[in-house]
Specification:
There is one protein chain. This protein has about 190 residues and is mainly α. The protein is built from six helices and three strands; from the N terminus they run ααβααββαα. The protein has a three-stranded antiparallel sheet with strand order 1-3-2. A hairpin with a 2-residue loop joins β2 and β3.
Amino acid sequence: MHEDGNGDGRGSTPGVPPGGAPRVSPDDAPEVSPGGAPEVPPGGADREFLSLERELTVLLRRARANQGETAREVHPDLEPAAYGLLVRLEELGRQRATELAAYIGVGKATMSRQLRALEQLGLVTREPDPADGRAWLVALTEEGRTRVGRVREARRARYVSQLAHWDRGAVAELARLLHELNQGMAK
């Protein structure tokens, strides 16, 4: 925070007269009204949520840019959106197509198309579900497991390198918060 000379510790914003509307900045602490409640900036959103929206936008933009590269590391012809599907199969093993569609958040037609493409690439196989003859179970092939495992290990190594200066507890807390966010958005 910047001391503006008035002794209250609140930062001054260049170009905004005293009593004027505060500018939303991620580096500024929330303004507090005389009653002690955080002031709501123009547009009705408070600063924490504006900051969250901005940071998620950057994160998602970077994730989308990396998604294609990651998919190509698994297989040159793999669609970027299919990588998460392969990771899910690696982590949980055989799954019904309907379960995969619900997890990824796509419809049955989209899931069927993705699974056909993955089968053609030799990354997954489908077999009848012994518990329900009308359903199919999807599983990674040995080739799919090898390729996905290699790419995931390389990604983990990049995260370790990029976040080497972070405390392990902070990394665990970030993972916990992201998990909580994902769970909340799935509802």
